[in-house]
Amino acid sequence: MFAADCAQAEIYDPQLKAAYKTCHDYLRSTRAEEFWCLQLMPPALRPACWALFAAYCLADDLADTTEGDGSQRLRAWREALDTDLRLGTSQDPVRQAVVHTMWCWNLKADAFDVTFTALEKDALRTAPGPATWQQWRARSKDINVPFLLQCLTLLRHAGLDTPLHLTRLDAYQQLSDGLFLTDSLTDLADDLSRGDITLPAEELHRFGTCETDLSQRRWTPAVQALISHLLATARTWLDQPELWTGLPPGPAVVLRTGCTLYRARLHAAEKAGPALLQYAARPDLAARLRVIGPGRLLAATTWHLFPLPELRTAPPPVHPALPAPRTAPTGLLEPPQPHAGGARPPALPAKRMPRHVAIIMDGNGRWAGARGLPRNDGHKAGGKALIDVMHGAAEIGLPHLTVYLLSTENLEKRPPQEINKLLAFARQQLQAGDFLRYDVRIRWAGLPDGLPGDFVDLLHTNEEATKGRTGLNVTFCLNYGGRSELTQAADSLADAARTGQLNGTRVSEHLLRSHLPLGDLPDVDLLWRTGGEQRISNFLPWHTAYAELLFTDKLWPDIDRRDLWEAMTEYTHRHRRYGAVPALQPVVSAQEAHNGTSG
Ligand code: IPE
Ligand code: IPE
Ligand code: MG
Known about the structure:
There is one protein chain. Helices cover about 55% and strands about 5% of the residues. The model is unreliable at about 315-325 and about 585-599 (pLDDT under 50). The protein contains 25 helices and six strands. The chain has a six-stranded parallel β-sheet with strand order 3-4-2-1-5-6, with helices on both faces. Helix 21 (about 455-465) links the parallel strand 3 and strand 4 (about 470-480). The longest helix has 25 residues, at about 135-155. It has three domains: about 1-130, Farnesyl Diphosphate Synthase; about 165-305, Orthogonal Bundle (Farnesyl Diphosphate Synthase), CATH 1.10.600.10; about 350-570, 3-Layer(aba) Sandwich (Undecaprenyl pyrophosphate synthetase). The chain has helices at about 1-10, 15-30, 30-40, 45-65, 70-85, 95-105, 115-125, 135-155, 170-185, 190-195, 200-205, 210-215, 220-240, 240-245, 250-270, 285-305, 365-370, 375-395, 410-415, 415-430, 455-465, 480-500, 510-515, 560-570, 590-595, and strands at about 355-360, 400-405, 440-445, 470-480, 525-530, 550. The protein is of the alpha/beta class. Helix 2 (about 15-30) packs across helix 3 (about 30-40) and helix 5 packs across helix 6 (about 95-105). It binds 3-methylbut-3-enyl trihydrogen diphosphate (IPE) (2 copies) and magnesium ion (MG).
C-alpha cells in the first residue's frame, strides 16, 4: 500500500521514500482515525497529505510536551523547517517529506504560520483555557482550517477544482468547529492530565460547573449536563450534508466519511460517560471498520470513476547546492567589542526579535557636506558606524544583518574617484582581517562586473574564511541591484529548463527562490533606511516582500549600535499580519514583555 502510493506520487528516491514512511508510520500509530481519512484521498496525493498532516501533528505534540519548554521546542522546529524550505531539502525525515511536498505542489512557504503560532501560544500555558466561545472559535479556526485549506490547494494543484462557495463559508467554519469540539471532548482526559481545559469557561459557568470540577475529574450532574449538551452541539455541527453535495464526488466522499468517523467518536464519548474524564474516548475496532471499510471502497470506486483530471505531479525539486556544513568555529574567537560608552543591549522578548535586519545606510554625503568635508570623509565615517552596528548586532543576538554598501546604480553613476575611495576603505577593512577575529560569517551579494578583480578575490577570501562561523551572518550588498538579482534567477531557471533539469515542472516560489543568488537567506523582517529618504532604491525586492519598513532621519555616520537596538525595539511593537485579520489579542502579553528574552 505504502509503496503503491509512493509510486503513484512518483516518489522513487530511497531516502525520500524513507522520509515519507516516517510520516506515514507516525500518523498511523498516533492518529489512526485521521490517517485512515487521509487514505481516502487519491493515491497520488496521499504522501503529500501524510507529510503535511505529520508536520501539524508533530507541532501539536511538541507544544503539548510537559517536559521542558514546548513553545521553544516548537519554535526551533519551525525555524529549522523554514531554513530547510529555503534549501529545498532537510536532514530530518519529517521535514524532508514536508519540504518535498511543499516544493512539488507549490504550496506557500508560510502555510503553517497561523497554526504554529497558535500552538506556540498554547504551549506557553499563560491561561488555563479559552474564556469565551469567541476565543474558542478563533483557536479552532487557527488550528484546523489551514490544514483543510492545504488539502483543497493540493487537489486544485492536481487539477481538480474544488470551489469553496463563499456563501457557505460559515457552514465550513461550523464543520471545522465540529471537528475541533469532537477532538476537545474525546481527548478531554488527556488535556486534563496536562492541566489544560480546552472548553470555553463561559459555557462551563452557564451549566453551573467550573474548571476545578473538570480538573478534579468530578462527574457532577452539572458536568454531565454540560458534556451531553456539547456532544449534541458537535453532532449538529458535523451534520451538514449540503456541504458535500456541492463538492465533486471524490472530495465529497472524503469529507462525508471523515464526518461519519468523527460522529463515531462522539458516540464513543457518549458511551464512556464518567470514564470520559479518565480516558480518551475512541470507537472500538468494529465501529471503526464499519465506517472505514465502506468509506475506502466508495473512495476507491469514486476516484476510479472520477479521476483527477490532469495529475500535475511535479518531479522532485532541483536542489540548489547545499552550503557547506556549519561547524562550530575553530580557534578562539573574541566576543563582540563593547560599546564605547558602555551601553548594553535591551532585553527584547525572544518571540518578537527580528531574525533578519537589512539596512540602507544612507546619508554619508550629506553628513560630510554639512561639515564642509569631501564626500569620501562621509563614507569613511560611515564605515566606522557600520563596524559599531555589527558589534551591536552580535551583542543582541541578531542572526542576520544585511547592509547596502554600494548599488549597481552607484557604481554606474557616481564619479570614479568617489567609488575608488569607497572601495579602498572597504579593501582596508577586509585586508586587516578584522572580521575574522569574531564569530561573524561574511557573505557578499552583487555582481563582479565593474569591480577590480583583486577586490572580488578579497571578498571571496573573506567568505571562504568565515563560512563555518555560526554567529552573526553579515551580508555585504556591494555592486548589488535587486532587479539584477531577479534577472539572474530568471536566467538560471531558463538555463535549467534548456538543459532539461526542470523536466517540465511549473515554476513555484520555492523553485524560483532556489535560483536566486541569495536564495537561502531568510526573508527580511525589518528594512531600515537612515538619512531621511523614504525609498527602497532597488534593495532586496524578493526578501523584503513582507518586511516591516522603518525610515529614520539621522545620517548614517551619526548612527551607532544603540540606533540598531532602538530600531529592533520598534520592530517588536509592530503587528505583522501577512494578509490575515488582526489577532484578537497582542501576541506578547505584558508579563512576557516584562520577562524579556526569557519569553
Ligand atoms: C550612502 O550615502 C552610501 C552610498 C550610497 C555609497 P550617500 O553617499 O548616498 O549619502 P547621501 O545620500 O548623498 O547623503
Ligand atoms: C542606496 O543609496 C545605496 C546605498 C545606500 C549603498 P543611494 O543614496 O544611492 O540611493 P538613491 O539613489 O538616493 O535612491
Ligand atoms: Mg544617498
